[in-house]
Amino acid sequence: MDEERSPLRQLNEKPTELEPAEFMLSDCQDEGEFRRPLPGKEQSAGQSSLRQPAKKRLLDQSDDKAPPNKRKMVSASVVGFKPRPPVMSQRPAVNPVYKTSAATVAGGPSRGAMKKPVAATSKPESPSGVGAASRRPGWDLKGKMSDMQMKVSSYQEQVRNTKTQNRELREEAERARRELESLREEHSALLNKMSDVQSKVTSYQEQVQTISQENQGLRETGDRAQRELEGLTLEHSALLNKMRSIGIVISCSVSTLRVLEKRNDLDTAAVRGAALSDIHVCFCRAYEMENQELSSLKRTLEMDLSRERALSAQRLQEVRELTQSNAEQTDKLHQGEMERRALHNTLLELKGNIRVFCRVRPLLDRGQQQSSFEIQPQDKTIVLVKTEESHIGKEKELHKYPFKFDHVFPPQCSQQQVFSEISLLVQSALDGYNVCSFAYGQTGSGKTYTMEGPDVLAGEEMGMIPRAVQQIFQAACKLREQGWEYQFTASFLEIYNETIRDLLVSNKTPKKMDYEIKRASPTADIRVTNLKYIPVSSEEEVLVLIKLAKQNRSTARTQVNDVSSRSHSVFQLRIEGKNAARDVSCNSILSLVDLAGSERVQKSQSTGDRLKEMKSINASLTNLGLVFSALASKDGFVPYRNCKLTYLLQDCLGGNSKTLMFVNISPEIESFSESLNSLRFASKVNECVIGTATANRK
Ligand SMILES: Nc1ncnc2c1ncn2[C@@H]1O[C@H](COP(=O)(O)OP(=O)(O)OP(=O)(O)O)[C@@H](O)[C@H]1O
């Protein structure tokens, strides 16, 4: 476009270039006008000088008297360059004739044809003999005459030259004017052409737009036609099928006709033709009916479609409403869950944050004599009864030792019945509270049976640990629907003779490890260095670990119990819950402890290593009692550090936890005094009020 415009611009610019030339040419014209009289002037001057020798003479005479400047003027007028005064005042361009001519040369270098500087710039040469004329004596009139004639002829020559030049300039000016005119015409033609081109471009653009719109319309029409074609193709194929079936009917009819023909029932061709014509009419009717059916089917389909569309819009609206209601319900559910947690906690607090359950084992050997005790599960009481000789030794006295706990389970109670009473506590662990459950009792009283069960994976007899794990994973799965995500880490250790052993490390490759109970920071939970903390994500994974721990647990033959656990085993499940949508999180530790059997040294008749084991066990159990006493009496100092067991469990035995103690009782008569001791210990623990637990929530 710029390229197209550039010549136009040139054309626009040309006149400005031409202006000076135009001005110059007009000057030349004027010049011509000015010049025209010039030869005449000169001629007249010449003539006057020719005609007035007498006057010249007078002037020559007065020359001597005039001042020097006047003399100069006179001499100038002699050579004929001085114009007549009136002409000077009106036309100051006798001299400008030369100046303008000189300017013409300077101003029009491109117009070589206009250059005629010789005549314009060269001053008229003084005719030869002028100098001689001044030397001529006054009387030499003939000589002077001849000088004058020479001068006149020279001037005439000059006039001729000037005329020629003037004519040439005029021609040049005419040519330039014509050129200018043609350029102007060209310019205006180009402008017209430009505007034509522009209007054409605009019209092309409009055409392109119209065509593209038409194209779009055609495309849509094409699509519509394509769809219609597809519909028609389908209809066509349906009609073809119909035709085929009708054809079959016709062929059947024809063959029937043939049969009839054979039977001579139809004698003439006319009758045959009529029959065929009937068939044709039938066919047409059938076709018409089919067509009508198809049309009504189409109408029905269209109605169905619009109904479906309306239904779909309605469904969409319902989905929107349901989504909104779902969000509201989720909110309510979350609020409900938080309320449930609060109520659950209140309930447990009302029951007491440290609770004691008593469980009496059934008699293992029916031949053994059972000690006398009365159990009232409703009253949550157990009364040990013993007939003893009176102090004076005359008559036997009946001694009753009543104990009241949070629950008393008689021997026939199943594992499930026991667990149903602790499941609330397990739920608390998921809600962010530290929970600790431990079994206390003499050797063989059923602690391990209660906590683990005879076989970890035995359905009905599964102990509290696998059941708690099962409940936790099931509850975590349900809470996932409310946006809770849980992470679990399991650890299993035993404290044997005040030494920690990792039960999740196979005993076959014993490796001496230093296990130290530590709190990494004042706000961190208590952990054991070098102990295996294994992330678990399912109940099955945990059961495998419990089984491994069971195998690894130290067992030793004692006189009281064939397979007696001589160590405290501590299973811990660390629970971290997060509800990212609600920006809530909680963490807690579920500790399930199977304590080593308590027994009196004298009765067990242990010696050597067994005696050492027993002393260690009893020391730690005594310390456990001391911790509870300190907690019950709200002492500022609680002696957690006295033994590894209490030091390890300090987070689960303090104010910020929920504690459950099983006191297991052996029913045999010979276990009476041990049972009494255990019940007394448990009774003391039951008296403890360890304050209000707070959830570890953020
Ligand atoms: N409630 C019960 N029902 C049936 N059998 C039981 C019950 N409680 C315990 N037993 C059985 O009693 C025996 C001893 O139980 P268990 O080993 O659990 O005692 P313990 O207190 O753990 O002994 P230790 O302190 O020596 O480890 C086991 O054979 C166990 O199966």
Would you summarize the structure shown here?
The protein has helices spanning 2-35, 37-51, 53-63, 68-79, 85-90, 94-107, 117-121, 130-135, 141-262, 269-351, 415-430, 447-451, 464-480, 539-552, 601-604, 608-632, 644-648, 650-653, 672-687; strands at residues 354-360, 372-376, 381-389, 396-404, 407-409, 434-441, 484-496, 499-502, 517-519, 526-528, 534-536, 555-556, 564-565, 568-579, 584-594, 657-665.
Explain this structure to me?
With 698 residues, the protein is of the alpha/beta class. Among the domains are: 2-196; 353-361 and 413-687, Kinesin motor domain (Kinesin), CATH 3.40.850.10. Helix content is 59%, strand content 15%. It is built from 19 helices and 16 strands. Strands 1, 5, 6, 7, 8, 11, 14, 15 and 16 form a nine-stranded mixed beta sheet that branches. Strand 9 (517-519) and strand 10 (526-528) form a beta hairpin. Helix 9 (141-262) packs across helix 10 (269-351), helix 13 packs antiparallel against helix 14 (539-552) and helix 16 packs parallel to helix 19. The radius of gyration is 68 Å and the shape is elongated. The protein starts with a helix and ends in an 11-residue tail after the last helix. The model is unreliable at 1-130 and 556-560 (pLDDT under 50). The structure holds adenosine-5'-triphosphate. Adenosine-5'-triphosphate binds next to helix 12 and strand 13.
Topology:
Elements: H1 2-35, H2 37-51, H3 53-63, H4 68-79, H5 85-90, H6 94-107, H7 117-121, H8 130-135, H9 141-262, H10 269-351, E1 354-360, E2 372-376, E3 381-389, E4 396-404, E5 407-409, H11 415-430, E6 434-441, H12 447-451, H13 464-480, E7 484-496, E8 499-502, E9 517-519, E10 526-528, E11 534-536, H14 539-552, E12 555-556, E13 564-565, E14 568-579, E15 584-594, H15 601-604, H16 608-632, H17 644-648, H18 650-653, E16 657-665, H19 672-687
Parallel strand pairs: 1-5, 1-16, 6-15, 6-16
Antiparallel strand pairs: 2-3, 3-4, 7-8, 7-11, 7-14, 9-10, 12-13, 14-15
Helix pairs in contact: 1-6, 1-9, 2-9, 9-10, 11-13, 13-14, 16-19
The protein binds adenosine-5'-triphosphate.
Binding site for ATP: 441-448
Domain Kinesin motor: 353-688
Coiled coil: 145-235
